[in-house]
Specification:
The chain is of the alpha+beta class. It has one domain (about 5-295). The chain is built from ten helices and six strands; from the N terminus they run E-E-E-E-H-H-H-H-H-H-H-H-H-H-E-E. The model is unreliable at about 295-310 (pLDDT under 50).
Length: about 300
Amino acid sequence: MTEFYYGGQAVIEGVMMRGRRQATVAVRRIDGTLATYSEDLPRGLYRARVAKLPFIRGLVALWEMLILGTRMMLYSANVQAGREIDQKIPRQVVALMLAVSLTFVIGLFFVVPLLLARGAARGHGPLAGNAAEGVIRLLLFVGYLALVGRFERMRCVFQYHGAEHKTINAFEHGAELSPASVQRFSTVHVRCGTAFLLWVIVISIFVFALIGHPPLLIGILARIILVPTIAAISYEILRLAARYYHLPPVRVMVQPGLWLQRLTTREPSADQVAVAIAALMPVLAADGAVVPEPQQAAVTVRVTTSGAAG
């Protein structure tokens, strides 16, 4: 049986979960009722053999974070605005939103650190320059998370992020998927996207050091082009950390990523956990997963269908 990792992300007043075959987003409407939307995932995305290969699956994860995540975030925004639609968000809208987001991310976390590091590490060699760039990038990243966490809307999103983690933790421990049961679990998770981004920052220091100290424009282009490679490497490290988390050295290695999640998760309410569960259940049903009954909360969950590892 092929190992598969379920996961998802927080959206506006809701949670998106994805499995082998489909992704489902559940969003709390303004009137308190629940809106859910599911869409089938491209067959080759998680089930094709090539998608299982090391490093290739990291690119799949990057696709999920960018394309699927953006689409589900836009859906949740529409629900909150009272413009609920039961179909895919148009590609043009997703592309525009993604272009704006990527421009902001590249500008803040790639161009700005490069410019600042070139001035700070002038005359100290490429390794020192890339180390300085990595430190600046990390400080900007942590500072950005701390800043956005001060806004009420983002605190709510971070609560749903915590609800998503609790639900996945409960599922992976074979616990009953009810709000009371799920609330017992942690808001942090070793495979969290926050930890993934931290690994991206760390790995980028070494990868960018390999290209030396090219002219500024080439340096910027190289960083953009190498992002998929860095993401693929980071994803493999994240998977290995999750698999061998029981080993003390690995636990020490992943602690910074777990600590950083304190900035991106908050303790959710029972209602928010219920939303996360509502997003996960259709995904499990589509995969033929066996979910523990209330009286079987200690039974390990089994997935009865084969497929690609996420």
